[in-house]
Structure formats: C-alpha cells, structure tokens
Amino acid sequence: MSLKNPFLFLIQALILASSSRPTEHVCGAILLEAKPVGRCDSHEAAPGDSCNGYGPLGMRCWIPSLAAQHTAPGITSPVNTAINSHASSIQASGHGGSSASMSLKNPFLFLIQSNPGPAVEEMLKTIMDQLGELKENSVKVNQRFDETFSKLTVINNKLDELTQTVTSYTAKVDDLQEQVNGLIRKIDDLENRSRRNNIIIFGVKEPEGEPQQSLEEQVTKNIFEDLLKISDVAIERIHRIGRPAENKCRPVILKLVDGRDKVKIFKHCCNLKGTEYSISEDFSPRVQAIRKKLWASAKAERDSGVKVALLFDKIKINGKLHQWDELLNKRVPLSAP
Hints:
Helix content: 40-55%
Number of strands: 10
Strand order of the largest sheet: 4-5-3-6
Radius of gyration: 65 Å
Structural class: alpha+beta
Largest sheet: 4 strands, antiparallel
Strand content: 5-15%
Distance between the termini: 108 Å
C-alpha cells in the first residue's frame, strides 16, 4: 500500500515533534497551561510535596481552554467551573473538569494506520467484476433454461400427437382384432361343416404294409355289416391318421358320401359296447379341445351315474346344456338366448 495523503503525515509529524516534553500532552487546538494537578491541596499534601510548583516530578498538563464555555463577559482569564476541581492525574481519562487528551505515544502506530488494507476502489471494482460474472452466468443459465423449456414443449407436443396416433391405432387394432376373431369363427365353422360327413373309428388293427382297399373292406365288413348291421354304406375316402408306430393302431378317418349314413351309424353305435372298436365325429381342433375340457369337467357326474352327452361344442348333463367359458376357463350353464 502507498500513502494516500502525504500532508496528513506532515501534520502528525509536527504534532509529534511539538509534544517532546514528556509531561505535556497535546489536548486540543486551543491550549492553556492549567494549574498543576495531582495531590496539591493543602489537606492532601504530604511532607516534602510542593503545591506551588509542579511537584517533585514537575508534572504539567496542557488542557483545552474552557473559557468559551465558563467565562463571563469581560473576563479574560479562564475559570474552571467544574464541580470537581481536582482533576485526575491521568488526563486521558477525562475525569473531573478536564477533557480527555491523547498523544501519539507510538510512532509506529502511524505507519499501521496509514496502511489500512486494500483500497476501497479496488475492492469495489473486484466486487463489481464478480457481480458482472454472476450476471453473465445467470443470463447463460436462463438462456439454457429457456432452450430446455422450448425443447420440452416440442417434446410434449410430439408426445400428444403420438398419443393421439397410438389411440387411433389402438382403436383400429381393436377393430381388426374383432374382425380377425370373426374370421376365425367363420373359418372354424366352415371347417366343421367340411368335416360333417366324417367319422373316426378307433381300434382297427393295422397290419404291416396295409393297402387302402384292404382297410376299406375291413371296416365295411367287420364293423358296419357284422357289428352295426348296416349295409350299403358308401365311403368316399378312407385312411389312417398320424404316423405309423410299433405296437400301436392308428385311428381310421373316413368320409361318407351321404350324411344320412352317418346318422344310421351313430344310431347303432350301442352295438359296439364291449368291443375293441369305438366311433366318434370329426371336429376342428378348437372344438376338439373344448369337448375334451367339457368331458373332463363332468367326470364327477359320470362317476355318480348321471347321464352325460356331448353335443358338438356343448355338454348335456341331466337334460341341461353347459358350455365352456374360455375367459373364466370353466364350465358354465348355457344361458337362454
């Protein structure tokens, strides 16, 4: 740091030089020599003390003039009107009628006072620079926030559009699903209609290298004529189902030319009771799965002797129809239309 006011240094140096007497203190701009202070009253004086002079120590003090405050008009000499005329010997305390006076005791104090620290202008400049940087950073942050908010707004708008698109497509998918389900039902119905004249016979022995003609003759003679007592059954096509396997007779599926022959065959199926043969209708895989579940669900009724009969994709128990609910995955009574 450097001296900001060199004249202040000169004034303080002059004041320090003028206070060369150790017992005199600079107390103010207007100085008057007051009477000696200390133990100078007659009733307090000790033997050997001098009350007319400055005492053995020659103590003298310069105190400020109080004439302007305590002198009457026309009186030129100062009059001390303080209540306690015995001022303290320590003038710096300001006790009694005297004012506190201080002197420059330590010249190094001046150097310390003349170097208080950084200049205020420099500190203010630093603070203003920092505030400017903070303001710039704040502006940048606000700009980034505005950009981010704009991007979020665009994203929200796109999300709204996407939501509307997804909603519309969801409705379309639901509509398409209904159409597909309708088509599945129609295809299943057509498939079952195409299988209407088919019957499946189980238990027919399968010799190795069996020709189709031999299979047709075996079914016609051994089953239709000998067991069911039915003649003149016209067969359009006959073959076995599945791949050949050892020690296993594959079922035989055949298609009748006339659907009325199928009705006659099922009327005489009771004649197959106790034999190794059995006859069933041919259905689509969906209907076959439903019939299997319905038949398994009626096991308790069948074991108890209740009359149970499968009718296409429904089951009749004690004269009441039941159907299979695919959502509930259980058998439910068929409600009236």
